[in-house]
Structure formats: structure tokens, C-alpha cells
Amino acid sequence: MSAFWHPFSDMNAVTQNGELVIVRGEGSWVWDAAGKKYFDGGGALWYCNIGHGREAVAKAMYDQACQIASYSNFGDISTPAASAAADLVASLAPVPDSRVFFTSGGSDAVDTALKMVRRFWTLKDQPHKKIVIVRENGYHGMHTGGTSLAGIPDNNKGYNELVTDVVKVPWDDSDELIRVIDSIGEDNIAAFYCEPVMGAGGALFAPEMYLQTARKACLERNILFVADEVITGFGRTGEWFASIRYDLQPDLMLVAKGITSGYAPLGAVVAAPSVWKTFYAPETGVWRHGYTYSGHATATAAALANIKIMMDEDLPGNVRRLEKTFSDAVQTLSDIPAVDHVRSGVGFLGGIQLKEPLRAMEYNARIREAGLLTRAIVGGAIQISPALTTTEEEIHQMVEIYRAGLTD
Ligand SMILES: Cc1ncc(COP(=O)(O)O)c(C=O)c1O
């Protein structure tokens, strides 16, 4: 056993049982050190949108690293890769004329946005607008801000109070959201954070019109709408962003994962003019926020090559074309005695809800044994989020492996 302290792990169990060492990947498949082949049912951790082993991305990173691997972007400095990646992401963004603040990953984007919304209202001379509203079951990363925004109770237990002025609402009830907003008073609220489809919280699809109603309520009440698209961004729902699919026009959109499909760590806050113009105003001056690797040249080169593949192969279109096939296929798993129901219908995203939620880890181990890697997610469900390159034939292969693992 190596000295590697694994993230999100029971290290006693990992030390006892050993690591699963992955050595290679190709498309929707990966191989472990013993040579066993697995279907990648989780797309690694909801991120390998273009599939594994794409040489064009590796080559772009190699070329960039040979030129210059990275350079500080504080102040006025940029690299061609950082500027081009920002322009490309902005050109795809749900709100025209957006600006892109790069981070090192999703949690950085969540916390950057938290500071952005609080500072925004301070700059607007309304510092009393500081409460952030989040939904139960929400996952917004693991930094201090994101831990405080967690709607999954186990994710913020045991740290005492970190960031204050966070209010939770049910994940699926827009009437209750509006009631809570109105009882707190819009003058006290900075922003509402919202995953268009909840990932780690259980692969939960919001009720019809929930997202649009929430968005409208925020707009009417002068509350910034933050769409956390770390999972849903870059094609997973059959559009470049779920905010396009649901016409949300977010003030801030958070992305990571699919922006590079995991070939390099990168995230971003995509800011609409409603927000960035205040920060860019002559009287604002320096915003003292940023990371050493904000705009990292090799990571942004990976993003450019990754997004080019997504465009050339029309991967959002592939998801849209196969969405019904995908959903119909995974729904057949609901006949298995251990399965309560299957959540699906939007993009390459799904959750297999088990009748006995406490056995989710055990079923996940059996699915692994059967030849598919995925995760048990909150509420006793099993995640489905393969690469967006997954073919119709592979969808059926994937379902048969889930079936084998879930059948007692
Ligand atoms: C919706 C959402 N937001 C934020 C994050 C945090 O991203 P990262 O793990 O890259 O820091 C995740 C990670 O899974 C996520 O699913």
C-alpha cells in the first residue's frame, strides 16, 4: 500500500483491502493493473466526456508544455492558450458576452463565485445582501465555502460553523423557495446556488418548471442566480450547458470536469455581463482574488483540444440523439428485484435507486466485480454517467453489466 491518502475514503478499509490501480483507458473502457477490463460507468467522476486515451489532447498538452508549461496570469499577463480557451468557453456560454475566470477545479469555482457574489453586492453598496440560498442534497465541492453550502448533511458535519449566512431550502419545491426568499427579504440575499441536475446528491432531476420558476423568482427579486454546472456542463445533458436546455441565463455559471474531460485539472466561473461589468468598472480597481494556476497554460491547452473534439464530433448532439435510447435501456434495470426505480430521461445521466439504500456500497462492489466502475451516491443510488462518446451498442453492453452486478 502506497503513502497515497485517498480522497473521500475510509483509509482503514483501503489499507486493509488494498487499492484498485487503474493503468489505462480507451474510450468508455479502462483497465486495472491486473489486466481486468471495466466499462467506465461513471465517466471517472462525471468528467471523462470525450472518453479516455485521446491523443489529440495529450499532444496539445505536450506541445504547450514544451513551449511553456505555465506562467503566472496575475495582473496583465496571459498566454495564447488561456486567452483562446476563455474566448471559446465564452462563445459557448448561455449568456452572450460572458467573461471567464479560470480556477483549478470545481471547488475553486464554487468558492470563487461565493466571494464574487458577496463582493458584487458590496461594490453595489448593498453589503447587507449576503445570505446565500442552497438546496438540500446539493453538492458544491469541498472547499470551506462549498462545505458550508453543502445540502448533503454528512458533507458538513464535524467542522463547526465555517461560512455563515447560508440558508437551505428543499431541493424540489419552488413555492417553498419563494416563501423562504420573501420571509428573509431580498435585501438580505446575495445569491441562489443551483445544480440544474443534482449529481452527487443522488442524480436527481428537478420537477418540471422548478428551475425556470426559481430563475424567474431570483431575477424578479434581484438575487444572483448561480448555476453549478460542474457536472452538467460541456454536453452531459445534450446541450453545451443545462442552462441552455432549461433557458436559465445564469448570472454565474460554474464549470470544471468536462471542460478538459479530466485531461488536466481546470475549472471556471463564467460570468454574465450582469456581474462582470461591476468588477471591470474603472472605480473598482484590483479584485484581490485568484489562484496560482488560474489560466494555467497546459490546462487551458487541454481545454481547447477537448472542446475542439466535442465540437468536431458534435458530442452534445450525440447525447441528444441517444438520450431516449439511453433512458429506455437503463429503465430496463428497474425490473431487477434489488432496484426500486431508475432515474433517467435527461442526457447521459442516471441513478439506479436501490430498495435497500444501505446496501449501495455492497452492490457497487458487485458491479465492479461484474466489470463496471461507478459509485454509490447519496440516498442509496448507483451512478450512471458514461463518456459522451458512448455508442448505442456500448449503452446496451453497459446496462447488461449493471444488470449482472445488481442481480443477486
Ligand atoms: C456540482 C458540483 N460542484 C462542485 C464540485 C466540485 O468540483 P471539484 O471536485 O473539481 O473541486 C463537484 C464535484 O463533483 C460537483 O459535482
Defining key terms:
Aspartate Aminotransferase, domain 1, binds pyridoxal-5'-phosphate, alpha/beta, 2 domains, 4-stranded mixed β-sheet, 14 helices, 408 residues, 38% helix, Aspartate Aminotransferase, domain 2, 7-stranded mixed β-sheet
Share in β-strands: 15-25%
- What is the straight-line distance between the termini? 31 Å
Q: Order of strands side by side in the largest beta sheet? A: 4-12-11-10-7-5-6
> Going by CATH, what is the homologous superfamily of the largest domain?
Type I PLP-dependent aspartate aminotransferase-like (Major domain)
Total strands: 17
Please tell me the CATH architecture of the largest domain by its name: 3-Layer(aba) Sandwich
The CATH topology of the largest domain is: Aspartate Aminotransferase, domain 2
Give an overview of the whole structure:
- With 408 residues, the protein is an alpha/beta fold.
- The chain folds into two domains: 11-54 and 314-406, Aspartate Aminotransferase, domain 1 (Alpha-Beta Complex), CATH 3.90.1150.10; 56-312, 3-Layer(aba) Sandwich (Aspartate Aminotransferase, domain 2), CATH 3.40.640.
- The chain has helices spanning 11-17, 43-46, 55-68, 80-92, 106-123, 144-148, 174-184, 210-220, 242-245, 273-280, 297-312, 315-331, 360-370, 392-406, and strands at 22-26, 29-32, 37-40, 99-103, 131-135, 166-169, 189-194, 197-198, 204-205, 224-228, 252-255, 267-271, 339-343, 350-354, 372-373, 376-377, 381-384.
- The strands form four sheets. Strands 4-12-11-10-7-5-6 form a seven-stranded mixed β-sheet, with helices on both faces. Strands 1-2-3-15 form a four-stranded mixed β-sheet.
- The structure holds pyridoxal-5'-phosphate.
- Pyridoxal-5'-phosphate is lined by residues 105-107, 110, 139-141, 195, 199-200, 228, 230-231, 256, 267.
